[in-house]
Amino acid sequence: MLDKTTETPSAARIAANESSESLSGPFPVAENYDRYFASHLYDRRYPRPNPASLAVIVEQIRARGGRVLDFGCGNGRYAAPLLAQTEATIVAYDISREAIDELSARYPAQVADGRLRPVWGDLAALSRTTMAQGEPFDLAIMMFGVLGHIASRTQRRETLATIHQLLRPGGRLIVTVPNAARRFRRHQAEAQPLMEKGVLEPGDIHYQRMAGQVMVKMYYHLYSLEEFGMELERQGFRLIQMGAESFLPESGVVRSPFLRGLDRLLAIFAPLRYAYGFLAVAETAPEANSPVDRSHGAG
Ligand SMILES: C[S@@+](CC[C@H](N)C(=O)[O-])C[C@H]1O[C@@H](n2cnc3c(N)ncnc32)[C@H](O)[C@@H]1O
Description:
By secondary structure, the protein is an alpha/beta fold. It has a domain at 18-22 and 44-183 and 220-283: Vaccinia Virus protein VP39 (Rossmann fold), CATH 3.40.50. The chain is built from 14 helices and nine strands. The strands form two sheets. It has a seven-stranded mixed sheet, with helices on both faces. It has a two-stranded antiparallel sheet with strand order 6-7. Helix 2 packs across helix 6. The longest helix is centred in the N-terminal third of the chain and has 15 residues, at 10-24. The structure holds S-adenosylmethionine (SAM). S-adenosylmethionine binds next to helix 2.
């Protein structure tokens, strides 16, 4: 079952968004991801999950339980192999209606038997749906830049706090973010004037790319290793593991076996600060209201 459905067809919705842009500013993330997924460029660039990240998720599900929230699931790059390789039941949530429509259309059997529950909407819609089902999650995943696309530090904190509430005591979050030291250096320089005017916060950028015939415009927050760990701890998560999502660009790692092999070698030898993206595994306190251990876990 898809929660919060509307009958709006994709093409009409995307056309309507052209005019809504002037009202909501030039970087409405949901609409831009609608265009990105509808153009199929996303699938061509990222046709499968990062195998190293997928392995971390599968290991956590097998060790700790299979009620999974895939937050910012896109059209199912991680949800699909998790359904195939594990017994997990997955609530797959995204603000892009196009992403949720594509996911629902690709896996109708899993939607029908209840193993996959696509949810489209805002944080309130997610909370309503998941509270209604009663059981908290064993694991939440936010894969490949989802957190970084949430504009403003306040909203990222609110999002992490909501995820924390939806996890069981001792539940875990696997989250990846882009490394500011490696990504979008030119855009970071271009963001300086907007930062001085108070429009952007440190680490924020705007960027755009063509997706087929349409322009996709994005807001992105890029992280330092320190900020990433601190933000998780601030919302009550204890850091269990911090590593690289990849050292080479994700699009290369997921498409080329050679680059994948090279990337794993780099993961052994290269300092973490040179990673393309960081991957953290973090845990809620074992019992609700128990104090958070502020010491960092394993590296
Ligand atoms: C780079 S894609 C990653 C998609 C998927 N996790 C993957 O690895 O292929 C980022 C996704 O985050 C979603 N997203 C951005 N902001 C969001 C928010 N505030 N709430 C939920 N999803 C969001 C976008 O719609 C998009 O599907």
